[in-house]
């Protein structure tokens, strides 16, 4: 129905009711939310201090600990997207002058460098070509050189499709008293990740990738070692909204008002995490791996080349090289507008060179791979 709305200068603005196309989101995120998650999100809001909501917050904390495989008491959702949880991690972990060693092998490594610098870190960088990973030897030598307070790595580099192995890194960190900070935005829920077993002190994620939820409520966790550092700070956390000293009093026993939580997003996040718990986290990882392997085979059958070496490939995000003579941007646009299928293009070093195909959360299903191979196949085979 078209309505006529009065505007300030008494002209009339013609607007129809919201009419957004339904797309299959197979790019680097967001991914489609599970229908049950959307249904949960439609539940009418209660107040942010309502006992029913406080119970839901506790449940979110328990479910996050399960999906991340951690016992960290301070495990919460940040109100905001993955970048807000990333900034919460940086803001709470770093004090001005701290030496922070960051592995940069893609776009999100660069974002960590930018954020850490803004919070006064003495940033040291190691780099790799986009699509490669850091070996334990490389990390060991960089840690020995820089003696960092914090080592920051991106587990799942969404810009390249590479999975950075994390086993053994925390042992290297502990030898030098460093904390280990990990971006798990595109791995949580879809890629094996054992926070406690792997000694990860600080981690964050988002809702709209591996968890199959709309964007806006983002997982965050800190180990007791990281909290010790927070409590012994000489300076205030330089970000009021994301200060865990304050936020932990809302999520903890005190229940002190801090900000109005995005209530309905938390409903959605709880349902998405509940669905993962119902499936079982190991089963979710296995499903992502199986569907990714099915996609890789299909892309190779179409004559295409995958960008990342198989053992380091992410099951959640695949980079495939754009065949010679094909306009990658134009194809992605055609898939979107003609087929309602979204895929991503390359960023930075990989700009114009690869497509990025996401199979994340609820979207990691065989029928979606079939659909993608069918519509992309028509474009690359001509
Ligand atoms: C998507 C992403 C982010 C940022 O998350 P937003 O929800 O877009 O703010 C950070 N790191 C990685 C690795 C990502 O893929």
UniProtKB/TrEMBL annotation:
Biological processes, Gene Ontology terms: glycine biosynthetic process, by transamination of glyoxylate
Positions contributing to substrate binding: 356
Organism taxonomic ancestry: Bacteria, Bacillati, Cyanobacteriota, Cyanophyceae, Oscillatoriophycideae
Protein name stated in the entry: Alanine--glyoxylate aminotransferase family protein
Keywords of this entry: Aminotransferase, Pyridoxal phosphate, Transferase
UniProt cross-references to InterPro entries, sorted A to Z: Aminotrans_V_dom, Aminotrans_V_PyrdxlP_BS, PyrdxlP-dep_Trfase, PyrdxlP-dep_Trfase_major, PyrdxlP-dep_Trfase_small, SP_NH2Trfase/AEP_transaminase
Family: Belongs to the class-V pyridoxal-phosphate-dependent aminotransferase family.
Cofactor(s) listed in the protein's UniProt record: pyridoxal 5'-phosphate
GO molecular function, one term: alanine-glyoxylate transaminase activity
Key word Flavoprotein present: no
Residues modified as N6-(pyridoxal phosphate)lysine: 209
């Amino acid at each position: 129905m078209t309505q006529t709305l009065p505007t300030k200068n008494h002209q009339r603005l013609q607007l129809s009711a919201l009419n957004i196309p339904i797309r299959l989101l197979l790019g680097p995120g967001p991914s489609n939310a599970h229908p049950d998650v959307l249904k949960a999100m439609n539940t009418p809001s209660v107040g942010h201090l309502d006992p029913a909501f406080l119970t839901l917050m506790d449940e979110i904390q328990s479910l996050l600990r399960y999906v991340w495989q951690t016992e960290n008491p301070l495990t919460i959702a940040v109100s905001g997207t993955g970048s807000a949880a990333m900034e919460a991690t940086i803001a709470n972990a770093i004090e001005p002058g701290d030496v922070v060693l960051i592995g940069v092998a893609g776009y999100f490594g660069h974002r960590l460098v930018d954020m850490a610098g803004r919070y006064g870190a003495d940033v040291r960088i190691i780099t790799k070509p986009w699509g490669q990973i850091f070996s334990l030897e490389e990390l060991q030598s960089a840690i020995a050189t820089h003696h960092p307070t914090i080592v920051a790595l991106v587990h799942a580099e969404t810009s390249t499709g590479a999975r950075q192995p994390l086993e053994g890194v925390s042992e290297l960190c502990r030898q030098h008293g460093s904390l280990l900070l990990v971006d798990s935005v595109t791995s949580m829920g879809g890629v094996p990740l054992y926070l406690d077993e792997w000694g990860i002190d600080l981690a964050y994620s988002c809702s709209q990738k591996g968890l199959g939820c709309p964007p806006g409520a983002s997982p965050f966790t800190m180990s007791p070692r990281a909290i010790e550092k927070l409590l012994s700070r000489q300076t205030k956390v330089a970000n009021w909204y994301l200060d865990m000293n304050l936020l932990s009093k809302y999520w903890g026993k005190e229940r002190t008002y801090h900000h109005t939580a995005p209530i309905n997003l938390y409903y959605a996040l709880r349902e998405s995490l509940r669905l993962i718990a119902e499936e079982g986290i190991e089963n979710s990882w296995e499903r992502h791996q199986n569907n990714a392997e099915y996609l890789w085979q299909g892309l190779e059958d179409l004559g295409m080349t995958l960008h990342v070496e198989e053992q380091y490939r992410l099951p959640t995000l695949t980079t495939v090289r754009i065949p010679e003579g094909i306009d990658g941007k134009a194809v992605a646009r055609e898939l979107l507008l003609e087929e309602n299928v979204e895929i991503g293009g390359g960023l930075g070093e990989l700009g114009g060179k690869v497509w990025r195909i996401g199979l994340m959360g609820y979207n990691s299903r065989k029928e979606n791979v079939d659909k993608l191979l069918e519509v992309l196949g028509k474009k690359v085979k001509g």
